[in-house]
Amino acid sequence: MIEMQNLSFGYSGNDPLLADMSLTLQPGSFHFLTGPSGAGKTTFLRLCYADLLPSGGRMAAFGQDVRGLSRDGIAGLRRRVGVVHQDTQFLDHLPVAENIALPLLVSGEQVDMPALGELLAWVQLSGHARAMPPELSGGERQRAALARAVIMSPDLILADEPTGNLDWDMSMRLLQLLIELNHSGKAVLIATHDLNLIRAAKQQVQARVLRIAGKRLQLAGADL
Amino acid sequence: MKKSLDLAALWRGLTRPDPAGTDRVVPPTGFTAQLTVFSAAAMAFLAVFALALALATGRMAERWSSELAQTVTVRITAPPEQIDQQTATVLAALKTTPGIAQARLLPDDEVEGLLEPWFGPDVPVEALPVPRLIEVTRAAEGFDAEALRLRLEGEAPDAVLDDHTRWRQPLVSAANRLRVLGLFSLLLIAAASGAMITLAAKAALAANGQVIRVLRLIGARDITIATAFVRRFTRRAAMGAAGGTALATAAVWALPEMDQAGSFLTGLGFQGWGWLWPLLIPVAAAAIGFVATRAAALKMLREVR
Ligand SMILES: Nc1ncnc2c1ncn2[C@@H]1O[C@H](COP(=O)(O)OP(=O)(O)OP(=O)(O)O)[C@@H](O)[C@H]1O
Ligand SMILES: [Mg+2]
């Protein structure tokens, strides 16, 4: 689904933040992405949904070179990739349920109300459907973000520190949701520095762990 | 970018009803909205008067210049014993003047008719020292009024060439100039409306930068985002302008009847089908709102990936 070859990226021209990265994300795979804070995990994910464009190398998403994508092409790519952003943003003037349904609305698709209800129940937000986003707790925001990320049934789900400010129980619940999605055939990539989360996941899915170290992407071994 | 915001697609987005409520993705902007509606109304109000001015002065210039083109009169106020001889001399002179199509001595009953408004129906024209009037119709090429005047002075000293050109010409050019000013004002009003709507749209777009960013991130196309803004501002501009136009048209309609005084001031209005002209103002306002907001949205979206 996503193919990178010798990819490099830098915010400022001369000094790349990420260099010489090669990776292929297969359908149905489950990946963790780790690395110290500031290593470039968020940056890596932004490259995946064409929020940033690579400075060097090649990257294709769903068979298309991202650098050749038009603005509408980028919008199309984002409809096929569900993203849970690190700093989850909602439209604060619309209730939670509508925020979750927003990707359908902006792509002109019909909102299936029973399905939306099921999705809300799945992320345990049924009671908050009509709440406004600023009224949600951190964990509720993360789950709402996950619901919004999956409503278009994307083939790939990217989650950036989805458990960043959650307690252990809530983290486990969210991980469970992501694992369920993976079991239903979706590829999942989670950026996190929470090793306990990775260990917990490894007991249930075949997860591969990628690590950004020294600007490069490495496949971490069985040391976890 | 160009393609995703092409006008046809935007037009379809604008004219289609919005059952899904896509417009709601942009939060309501109460105060900006009211200001936009008010400014559009004020501009439309002014535009109606500029339009009325342009149309009225146009009519006036046309009427005056067509009257100008028609006739000139020669008035002869000689003593009774000379009047017949001088009249004959003048008629002969006019016949030989190049550029004159016809010279006709007005018969007494027509002169009586002209005098009636001043002296009543039973004027004894014979008893009054009524001047003789000769109506001169100029040929297409016109004649040299100054040369004719000099010649008449020599041959018939009591004949006066009454040339309306001398006082009407400046009026015609004033009317024409006023019409140009009216049209220019319309242009200025249109430009100012465009500027004002651009400012309002830019303010709304800037205030909603975060909303636009979120929408892009979840896969909204530029056209979807732009339509939400363009629809809003086009509608406001049209609504405001419709209100302003209605008020101003009513005000023009309520001006005193033009026959009552027949002067320039009371002639300021619309005539016949001319009353349909103001209908174009809300349409123009909508078009201006559409173009201005679209340009602002295009520019803004370019900064968001
Ligand atoms: N827009 C930007 N412009 C310039 N530099 C940036 C920008 N965004 C991030 N950086 C820098 O790039 C580096 C990587 O940032 P990134 O957010 O990808 O790190 P991260 O691995 O996600 O960190 P964390 O675990 O804290 O979320 C950091 O040093 C950061 O300061
Ligand atoms: Mg990060």
TrEMBL record, chain A:
What is an example of a GO molecular function annotated in this UniProt entry? ATP hydrolysis activity
Q: Which PROSITE patterns match?
A: ABC_TRANSPORTER_1 (PS00211), ABC_TRANSPORTER_2 (PS50893)
This protein is called what? Cell division transport system ATP-binding protein
The GO annotation for biological process reads: cell division
Write down the species: Paracoccus thiocyanatus
User: Pfam families in the record, alphabetically?
Assistant: ABC_tran
Q: Which InterPro entries match?
A: AAA+_ATPase, ABC_transporter-like_ATP-bd, ABC_transporter-like_CS, ABC_transpr_LolD-like, P-loop_NTPase
GO CC annotation terms, alphabetical:
plasma membrane
UniProtKB/TrEMBL annotation, chain B:
Q: Which GO terms describe its biological process?
A: cell division
One GO CC term of this entry? membrane
InterPro entries per record: FtsX
Q: Which region is the signal sequence?
A: none
Query: Which controlled-vocabulary keywords does the entry list?
Result: Cell cycle, Cell division, Membrane, Transmembrane, Transmembrane helix
Can you tell me where the transmembrane regions are?
35-56, 180-205, 211-230, 237-255, 275-297
The answer, when asked if Isomerase is one of the entry's keywords, is no
Under which name does UniProt file this protein? Cell division transport system permease protein
